[in-house]
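Session log. Operator J.P. requested a structure for one protein chain; no other inputs attached. Running the standard single-chain path with token output.
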Amino acid sequence: MKGFDLVGNIAIMKFGSEKVSEKKKKAEKLLKENKNLKTVVEKVDKVKGRLRTLNVKHLLVKKI
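Structure written below.
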């Protein structure tokens, strides 16, 4: 894991070339460590365009 950004209760994680199972394990660990987080997504591309949109992929949502 290279790091993560927070937007409200969503964590945007940045990974290198890791397997999906390893990414999900790290996302679960992050959710357990930070009680205020509810969703973890993976950044898949750079910020693009005039509106500075970010492409992300859903990894994990905290179960209630």
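Operator note: The mean pLDDT is 89.
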